[in-house]
Amino acid sequence: MITRADAIIVGGGIHGCSTALHLCLRGLRPVLIEKDYAGRHASGVNAGGVRQLARHIAEIPLSIRSMDIWENIGDLLDDDCDFDNHGQVLVAENEEELDACRDRVAELNRHGFTHEELISAAELRRLVPAVAETCPGGIVSRRDGVANPARTTTAFRRKAGRLGATVREGVAATNIRQENGLWRVDAGGETFEAPILVNAAGAWAGRIAADLGEPVPMKAVAPMLMITSRVPDFIKPVVILRGRKLSFKQFRNGTVLIGGGHLGTPYPETNETVLDWAKLHESAETVFALFAVMRNATIVRAWAGIEARMEDDLPVVSRSSKHEGLYHQFGFSLHGFQLGPGTGAVMAEMITTGKTNTPINDLAIDRFTGRSAV
Amino acid sequence: MTPARDEYDVAVIGAGPAGLAAAALTAKAGLSTLLLDENQGPGGQVWRAITTTPVQDKTLLGKDYWAGKELVEDLRKSGAEILQGATVWSLDRNLEIGISVGGGACLIKAKRVIIATGALERPFPIPGWTLPGVMTAGAAQTVLKSSGLLPEGRTVIAGQGPLLWLLSAQILRMGGKIDLVLDTTDKRNYRRALPHAAAFITSPYFLKGLAMMREVRRKTRVVSGVTSLVASGEGHVESLSFEAKGKKTTVPVDVLLLHQGVVPNVNLAMSAGVKHHWDDIQLCWAPELDGKAETSVPGVHIAGDGAGIGGALAAVARGRVVARAAIDALKPDAGASLPSAADLKTAVAKAEKGRLFLDLLFRPTKQFRIPSDDTIVCRCEEVTAQDIRDSVAVGATGPNQLKAYRRAGMGPCQGRLCGLTVTELMAEARSKTPEEIGYYRLRAPVKPIMLSELARLPKTDEATKAVVR
Ligand SMILES: Cc1cc2nc3c(=O)[nH]c(=O)nc-3n(C[C@H](O)[C@H](O)[C@H](O)COP(=O)(O)OP(=O)(O)OC[C@H]3O[C@@H](n4cnc5c(N)ncnc54)[C@H](O)[C@@H]3O)c2cc1C
Question: Across the interface, which of B405, B449, B466 has its CB nearest the CB of A278?
Fold first, then answer.
């Protein structure tokens, strides 16, 4: 028996779940298929950074749309997702880096974006007292913050379910095909069909796109994070160093999350990752050198998540360049958590109205596949 | 002190019976062998402090304890490099091992890894088990062996299993006082175990076990058939209520020692990606092993209680089987002068004889494994049984999602004190099997390491190259 739905979404990360929820809000009945459980991969294990700061211009409009949703996330999901907005700060460690910050802010201003502000040494010290005396300034994005990733993704999944989405967890979407103008997908013992198919399969999405005739330069990567034992409160905003691979934040309970984009090895076929301790050592070395309060901390846990990275580090958010009714939403390249709420809203808008006011042209799949008929 | 080299033929993790036996054999065969153990001296849990214990009167800790000495001496003569006080915090599928020792950390590699990290006590989540004054029998035994200290004040020991009786006997022999032993063994277990008694009667444990139980019964009051336990007190345990044969009793208590058997310590193996399955008889996770005790991660073997509870004698025998497998793989010529693989396996079978009888007899009952209401399950994050049932009701399907709902298992113990309870509780709440529910996904470091240690990690040539690339 084939079950009919309004849309089939493959992948229960924050993106698939957000699109499911926003389709429900627009009156559709989607089915969401997740091979493990919602939030099992990148969306549930990321650093939780809700950051507009330091984004590529092409994705800033999407990021700003997302931010508006984040600020009222409790109303949307009936769950505050542990969202805190103490800002995110990019630290320049020397004059040269500060010059680059100055150029960046000027460029954003030319495009009409004002969320990034250049800050002086004094303002930097006020925001992040623990930072080294020698740092001459940086950039702040004041509306930014953090949320609990697993909790957020789960909250999207639950709310979508409450509003009428059919959620299947623990079954992979297989045998994805178009028959009689409808998309059909097998999931466990069931088959679903719908006029719309959304490919939100994260690190597995490249394969799905390729199988449907739209190969893209995407690979699976495994960004790593570590969390420490509790240390006295010393920092409120999220801090990113401009010149090194390091970002960190302190949670309300005192633990500190250390990240920055060092990569381990992913094994997407088996859902496994292997950590690279030589690189985690580098992060530890930097934190140790810069922050005296961290010197007695212990590392309690380290992990990596499996994430999709595009060759140009920009996501694919668009309709297919080949097939009617097919949409792509993947390749978030280490910064897609913040984009989840807004991208779901934009996708639902495109699916139901055929267009969106949020400029996302530079994120279309045809930048790789070439323009074509659809 | 740090490892002498970057790479070994064999790294053995854990210097209990299995690790001691395995390392001695591989080293004697001429394989470069590193034995790593986090305690200050060798011996593991059964032979803890074997080289340093102040309790020198041999009758007090018993003959089985002192048997460990010979293995330690054997190992010392074998040429294995032995690092005590060395905590292994990471192992991965590339057989890279992260070690903390003497305030520093380092990474080494091995061609074969033998995990011999033994067992942990099964969680015993009764109401009040988190009160100060309540501890596990194993913890009490550790103190007793390493410093000769006995519990002070009104002492009650509750639970079941061989260690319960052994500890009681040891405390009493050393002049300690036990006010009451509460035996929670389910009466029905005797019937279930009986068909397997023949094998047990001829096992070396039978007579010893019987003698020990008699000794304890002679010296202190034992109540059997206990079906419920509730500890209470303000800021410290003050009383214990229990029920036996339908009769409720409350006794005052200063020290409550709990124990209901041991289960494999799976953390390191699981974090390395070793596949495990649910053992329905021992009610715990056990690694999937082939005939050479090799796991699903090529080159990683498990010996001793970590491979499924078998006791000290079986651990020694299993350690030798694994060592032999490593020797056959790395230096086949050296095998000729060693006992044959077949003989080693026979020794394992002999040592495991009667195990099924013990497993069935001491299989803990449900009410002591799957708590109800407000009983705390996850001590680190103070999550109760009811919290977990509530999370299931709103959609949590397994232990890893519970982390998102409740932070259960995210504390410093990394699930060692709650993991089994959480799996069984969620299985019950969802009418699934524990196998279907699964376990926490475990992450390195499996033991916390200092940020400063990681910051000072020496760069190996290979690591430097990797970073440059
Ligand atoms: C360690 C780490 C730290 C990060 N930090 C940040 C941060 O601070 N801020 C930020 O904005 N971003 C961050 N990111 C990036 C962010 O997590 C991701 O970009 C984002 O979560 C991607 O969401 P997704 O829904 O596309 O992918 P995923 O969360 O990976 O979801 C895709 C889902 O699809 C499922 N799936 C795949 N194939 C199938 C199939 N055939 N059938 C059914 N289901 C299938 C998968 O199981 C998976 O659950 C980080 C990522 C990592 C790994």
Answer: B466
